[in-house]
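Q: What structure does this chain adopt?
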Amino acid sequence: MNKDKPVAEPWLGDVLDEVLRQFNPCRECPSANHVRGANLPGQLAITETLETLVSLLFPGCHGRNPESDATLSGASLRLRLASVGTTLRYQIERVKAFDCTSAKGDCTGCKDCKAFAEHAVAEFLRQLPALRSVLHEDIQAAYEGDPAARSTMEVVMSYPGLYAIAVHRIAHTLFALGVPLIPRVMSEHAHARTGIDIHPGASIGSGFFIDHGTGVVIGETCSIGRHVKLYQGVTLGALSFQKDENGNLVKGIKRHPDVEDNVVIYAGATILGGNTRIGHDSVIGGNVWLIRSVPPFSKVYNRQPEPEIRTQAQ
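A:
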């Protein structure tokens, strides 16, 4: 008996025949990624590329061992960048072809997708040094903003907020270059791992810190300034969804709030709407619900309820 080839037990045969009559190969159904259909890189392939990029930004921090002089040399770094660049070019070419086919109904083989992918990867790689510099500001903001942080290396190796913003900065760079699908897969990977949901379209300034992090939601058209600090459970979301005359959601419009520089937003606060702006140097208290703008240097808090305290008789 071939141990590598499972054999159905007799009682299962009729069941399998019944299932297969309905459960066909489905090469073109919307949930299938087939070489003659969508032909996309798989989710795991994209997240492996992402983790390679994270390892380049934080050398030796998220793997098993520290980097050596040899692995951080110019020649070694060049090889690693070339490898991830080649992989990313292939992945972008495939998602662009799928996007083209979805829009036009057919991919004509005009080679525009390949040229687009090459340009996108070249521009992305050129922006890596600046991206790393911004992340260094994020690391410093987390270290200075959290009294529990004992070192910047503790922030890099253990803080979910920093991992989420690092992934976001990678995904946002690709999103801004017009790369479809891949940025969203990357951001949802970070969401699943950290509980922090940042759409890759959101624009976020340097020195950004998410403390604790779980439950934070930042929408696609949100704009956040420099040196902003969020706590867990903060939502920067849409107030409503505009529809066209056919009842379909209108996409591509401003739906999420803007947060200016040096703002602190405490746990559980909800700020909604594309016309809502939080002025610079403001503090938004915990569990506040805001659907209108506030001027700079504001402090917004809920009125404190009076607690009822009862003591049990001795």
